[in-house]
Specification:
Blueprint lengths: L1 H9 L3 H5 L5 H19 L4 H23 L9 H36 L30
């Protein structure tokens, strides 16, 4: 996603073309909110840890985007754009920090009511079953 942002932002005239439909702040806000969402969902841990990673990641990526734009003659680096990126990440992370734990509690409660936990793995063959010896994992020789 980040690479896509960098590539699309580097195409001459692309920014001007899409600028007819949405202002720069909206484009930055949407794209970096999606990045924050992906970073939040892609990291393990508690909601606060995920939010911190998402915001810091977007801060660095936004700064990198503006750094790349400073080398393009038809684009320019903007601190205001970077601040919009950071604000979008903060807003997305704040919403996700509240919603994600609630969604996970609901999902876990539903799974426990139905007897199916999504993270549960099937039980391995047991050593106390004669048809599956623990050493080989294959049926006993008499059962073939």
């Amino acid at each position: 996603m980040y690479l896509l942002i960098l590539i699309l932002g580097s195409i001459p005239g692309a920014r001007a073309g899409i600028g007819e439909y949405a202002p720069s702040a909206v484009l930055h806000g949407l794209s970096y909110s999606v990045l924050a969402l992906l970073l939040f969902l892609g990291r393990p841990g508690h909601a606060a840890q995920r939010a911190k990673t998402a915001v810091l990641g977007v801060m660095f990526m936004g700064a990198g985007d503006e750094f790349v734009q400073s080398f393009l003659s038809y684009r320019g680096a903007s601190v205001a754009d970077w601040l919009v990126d950071c604000a979008a990440a903060l807003a997305a992370a704040a919403v996700l920090s509240v919603l994600y734990p609630r969604l996970m509690r609901g999902r876990t409660a539903q799974a426990s009511r139905t007897g199916r936990l999504s993270s549960a793995r099937p039980a391995p063959p047991s050593a106390d079953r004669p048809d599956f010896p623990a050493a080989t994992g294959r049926p006993a020789s008499g059962d073939r």
